[in-house]
């Protein structure tokens, strides 16, 4: 901390202390070349210089007048603001210009006429689109005079400058506490009004902050799976998880009927998938596409997970530990299969003789004893086929 010996004030940065000390020392190192008037701060000198150059960079949005100094602009804005003939019929907010009212109305209509040609995101205001475009171009034209940090929009720069000036222009009208950001003031006022606009749809409890509502939902209203008691913070996540139990494959809805073609169905082998990511990965097995290469032996793989598991054959890493016997394994699926030797779980059941197996590979070998070498079985009539595509054609006879 940097302390002032004259006022006993303390500052976190030396530059802030130096700025503070100037009024004590009556130090005014910044002099005007035209009239030799001196100033304690460089921005004050720059603003004064404009009175000599006739430059008027401060424009009033309400009257189109321009001014050489910022305080004069503020006075003009206060004068113009008294006359606001254009009122919003929805919320009664008034504006001095018709164009300002039209722009405001979009907050009610949710109209977003300005579209980004890069990502097609839409915006209500042209200025917001202009700022957004800089996220693509990485342009940061607004520079802080104090620390040279760059920003993509003027508002962010203005907010940042307050970290140097310690300015807090947003004051609470109830307790006079001041804040550097408007959003911080808005949150603070709710501590006085006790306003709680964010309501929980599950228990009707209300909250002052949206973040508090999200925390409440995550902790108290998790969505539980009836099969395995696993919980999820979002209903959509639970619904996706349930497919691992029901083996449901999402269908495409067309008109008033359910189309027979599965949404994630491979055109090559008619295999279906519950998840788009799994379906995309499967397609690589047909395309013989192997994007992932081992940097040790140059072996290639279709899936990143396969490469990760393969690398452990080089590193001898076995991060998956059995909590029963402490035996270690290089991949999760092998550990999962091993755990069934302890739990005696046999999830792969035969529909023909009720025999069950701990491993899927053992189950498939057993099926061949019933199907006479034809592994693809119809779940409805138990007819068997040697090829999957023949089974898929047969299934259509049940749905017709």
From TrEMBL:
<dbReference type="GO" id="GO:0048598">
    <property type="term" value="P:embryonic morphogenesis"/>
</dbReference>
<dbReference type="GO" id="GO:0000981">
    <property type="term" value="F:DNA-binding transcription factor activity, RNA polymerase II-specific"/>
</dbReference>
<feature type="domain" description="C2H2-type">
    <location>
        <begin position="2"/>
        <end position="29"/>
    </location>
</feature>
<keyword id="KW-0863">Zinc-finger</keyword>
<dbReference type="GO" id="GO:0008270">
    <property type="term" value="F:zinc ion binding"/>
</dbReference>
<feature type="domain" description="C2H2-type">
    <location>
        <begin position="264"/>
        <end position="291"/>
    </location>
</feature>
<feature type="domain" description="C2H2-type">
    <location>
        <begin position="86"/>
        <end position="113"/>
    </location>
</feature>
<feature type="domain" description="C2H2-type">
    <location>
        <begin position="376"/>
        <end position="400"/>
    </location>
</feature>
<feature type="domain" description="C2H2-type">
    <location>
        <begin position="114"/>
        <end position="141"/>
    </location>
</feature>
<dbReference type="GO" id="GO:0005634">
    <property type="term" value="C:nucleus"/>
</dbReference>
<dbReference type="GO" id="GO:0003677">
    <property type="term" value="F:DNA binding"/>
</dbReference>
<keyword id="KW-0805">Transcription regulation</keyword>
<dbReference type="InterPro" id="IPR013087">
    <property type="entry name" value="Znf_C2H2_type"/>
</dbReference>
<feature type="domain" description="C2H2-type">
    <location>
        <begin position="170"/>
        <end position="197"/>
    </location>
</feature>
<feature type="domain" description="C2H2-type">
    <location>
        <begin position="348"/>
        <end position="375"/>
    </location>
</feature>
<keyword id="KW-0677">Repeat</keyword>
<feature type="domain" description="C2H2-type">
    <location>
        <begin position="320"/>
        <end position="347"/>
    </location>
</feature>
<keyword id="KW-0238">DNA-binding</keyword>
<feature type="domain" description="C2H2-type">
    <location>
        <begin position="292"/>
        <end position="319"/>
    </location>
</feature>
<keyword id="KW-0539">Nucleus</keyword>
<dbReference type="InterPro" id="IPR036236">
    <property type="entry name" value="Znf_C2H2_sf"/>
</dbReference>
<feature type="domain" description="C2H2-type">
    <location>
        <begin position="198"/>
        <end position="222"/>
    </location>
</feature>
<keyword id="KW-0804">Transcription</keyword>
<protein>
    <submittedName>
        <fullName>Zinc finger protein 271</fullName>
    </submittedName>
</protein>
<comment type="similarity">
    <text>Belongs to the krueppel C2H2-type zinc-finger protein family.</text>
</comment>
<feature type="domain" description="C2H2-type">
    <location>
        <begin position="30"/>
        <end position="57"/>
    </location>
</feature>
<feature type="domain" description="C2H2-type">
    <location>
        <begin position="223"/>
        <end position="250"/>
    </location>
</feature>
<keyword id="KW-0479">Metal-binding</keyword>
<feature type="domain" description="C2H2-type">
    <location>
        <begin position="142"/>
        <end position="169"/>
    </location>
</feature>
<dbReference type="Pfam" id="PF00096">
    <property type="entry name" value="zf-C2H2"/>
</dbReference>
<keyword id="KW-0862">Zinc</keyword>
<dbReference type="Pfam" id="PF13912">
    <property type="entry name" value="zf-C2H2_6"/>
</dbReference>
């Amino acid at each position: 901390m940097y302390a002032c010996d004259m006022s006993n004030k303390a500052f976190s940065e030396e530059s802030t202390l130096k700025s503070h000390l100037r009024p004590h020392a009556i130090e005014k190192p910044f002099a005007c070349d035209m009239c030799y008037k001196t100033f304690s701060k460089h921005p004050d000198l720059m603003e004064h210089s404009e009175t000599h150059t006739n430059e008027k960079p401060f424009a009033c949005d309400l009257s189109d007048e321009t001014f050489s100094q910022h305080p004069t602009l503020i006075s003009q804005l206060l004068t113009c603001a008294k006359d606001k003939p254009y009122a919003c019929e929805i919320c009664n907010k008034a504006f001095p210009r018709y164009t300002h009212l039209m722009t405001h109305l979009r907050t009610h209509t949710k109209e977003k006429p300005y579209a980004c040609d890069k990502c097609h995101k839409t915006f209500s205001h042209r200025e917001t689109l202009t700022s957004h475009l800089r996220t693509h171009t990485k342009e940061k034209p607004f520079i802080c005079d104090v620390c040279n940090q760059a920003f993509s929009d003027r508002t962010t720069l203005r907010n940042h400058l307050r970290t140097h000036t310690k300015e807090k222009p947003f004051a609470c009208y109830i307790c006079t506490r001041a804040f550097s950001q408007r959003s911080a003031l808005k949150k603070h006022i709710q501590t006085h009004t006790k306003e709680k606009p964010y309501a929980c749809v599950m228990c009707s409890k209300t909250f002052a902050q949206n973040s508090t509502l999200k925390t409440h939902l995550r902790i108290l209203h998790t969505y539980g799976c009836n099969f395995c008691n696993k919980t999820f913070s979002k209903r959509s996540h639970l619904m996706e998880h349930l497919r691992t139990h029901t083996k449901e494959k999402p269908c495409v809805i067309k008109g008033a009927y359910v189309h027979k073609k599965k949404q994630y169905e491979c055109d090559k082998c008619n295999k279906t998938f519950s998840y788009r990511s799994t379906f995309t990965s499967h397609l690589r097995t047909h395309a013989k596409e192997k994007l992932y290469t081992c940097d040790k032996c140059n072996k290639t793989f279709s899936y990143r997970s396969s490469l990760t598991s393969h690398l452990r054959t080089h590193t001898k890493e076995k991060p998956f530990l059995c909590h029963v016997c402490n035996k270690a394994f290089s991949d999760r699926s092998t550990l999962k299969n091993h755990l069934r030797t302890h739990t005696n779980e046999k999830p792969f059941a035969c529909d023909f003789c009720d025999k069950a197996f701990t491993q899927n590979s053992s189950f498939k070998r057993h099926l061949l004893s019933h199907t006479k070498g034809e592994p693809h079985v119809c779940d409805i009539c138990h007819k068997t086929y040697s090829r999957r595509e023949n089974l898929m054609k047969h299934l259509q006879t049940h749905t017709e």
